[in-house]
Amino acid sequence: MGNRLTAERVRGDVDVLSRAGLDLDEFLGEASTAVRRAVPWEAACIATHDPASLLLTSGRKYGALAETDSQDVLFANIEYGGQEQSSFRQLALTDRSAIGMHESMPDYVDHSLRMNQLIKPIFGFGDEARVLFKDTLGMWGGMALFRGSTDPKFGPDDVEFLGSLSESFARGVRGGVLARLAEPDQLEPTGRSASTGPAVIIVDATDEVTQISLGAEERLAELRSAPHVIDPMGIVFTLVAAARHSLSIPGAGLPRGRVRAASGHWLLLHAAPLASRNGISGDVVITIEEARPPEIVELVVAAFDLTARERDVTRLVLQGVDTKEIAATLHVSAYTVQDHLKSIFDKAGVRSRRDLISRVYFDQYAPRLGSVVGPTGGYLQ
After folding, report:
1. pLDDT, position 196
2. Residue 114 · residue 145 · CB < 8 Å
3. Please, what's the b/e burial string for 311-321 (b: 16 or more CB within 10 A of its CB; e: otherwise)?
4. pTM of the entire structure?
5. Is the pLDDT of residue 62 over 90?
6. CATH number for the 4-176 domain, one of 3.30.300.130, 3.40.50.10860, 3.30.450.40, 3.40.50.150?
7. 33 burial type by CB count under 10 A (0-12 exposed, 13-18 middle, 19+ buried)
8. What is the DSSP pairing of strand 256-260 with strand 266-273?
9. Short-list 324, 298, 314, CA closest to 357
């Protein structure tokens, strides 16, 4: 790692960026560039996750990995196949905020599928460091940094410094997903949206796409917002791998993730394994559809960075409960409720209860109120 003065400056820069209201592409691009001054890297891969399911919702690649998507299927099968102890999902279950593969897991690095099947033999890197974007509400994403085979391994100072950035990156990602309001759909000449209703993709046991519904390619295109963003099929293959792995876990729910599209609209992606008549398949069906308000309320509210009590007040406001009833329910004074509301309004960037409800519920629906609703429940325009 560079000198401590540089490290402190970079830490301060990332903190400032995380509070600047930047969208995801701007924040992650500028923050990763800043980190490089303190912890040199040859390539970087940055992911955002749904904090509820820990599934991938977007990915960005920089440096030597930029625009290299040919190994996304292998990565997905390793990262979400359930055997990799250093996967982001596994690390999220620990108290770690950052690791260096050789520094933090020396006894495991030679057994890591990711390191020995992908990172070293295919990409030619010598070491990897990972930092989790964690706060009290969960894990919002993670960053993997890579060094060449002849470069120094990530050391204890590197890992400690990267861990110190965890909450700042979480804050920046939370703010990034809310940085833009939804835009009206881009319409075809007929007046219909190019991506109306759910889209379906079927992937077979050999990870080949065998069937795809009308409108699915348009839905996938919505997930690519900038040059550094990964091929949207990379997200699909993580769902496929997670769905197959769920079969080995009794009582496991089917994988699902809430994704903010480039347009600002929220999409819900979920996957389910398919079974043939003989009980053997490996095929997986992925569905992409517009998320409904109840499916995104908790995520949007969490992104406002509210305290636990402020979240309690917000939930009651969204239920239409007045100040007096909120005070009685929470056993506080009406003045305390008003103080909480003022703080909530400031964090959400609104001025009233009505504005708060609109921000949470109608962010992606208000631009199309009055439009015709199609047979699937989606807006036709």
Report:
1. 63
2. no
3. bbbbebbbeee
4. 0.86
5. yes
6. 3.30.450.40
7. middle
8. antiparallel
9. 314
**Sign of the alpha-carbon dihedral angle for 218, 222, 226, 230:** negative
Give CA torsion, residues 101, 106, 111, 112, to 10 deg. -10
Assign residue 161 a region (left: φ > 0; alpha: ψ between -120 and 50; beta: otherwise).
alpha
pLDDT, residue 191, reads 36
Which residues have a Cβ under 8 Å from the Cβ of 346 and sit 6 or more positions away?
Answer: none
The CATH number given to 306-368 is 1.10.10.10
Per the CB < 8 A criterion, the answer to whether 171 and 19 are in contact is yes
Higher pLDDT, 319 or 18: 18
| Structure token digits, residue 216 | 């699915």
Residues 116-138 pLDDT 10s: 999 999 999 999 999 999 998 89
Token representation of residue 192: 């219909």
> Which tokens belong to 73?
């299927």
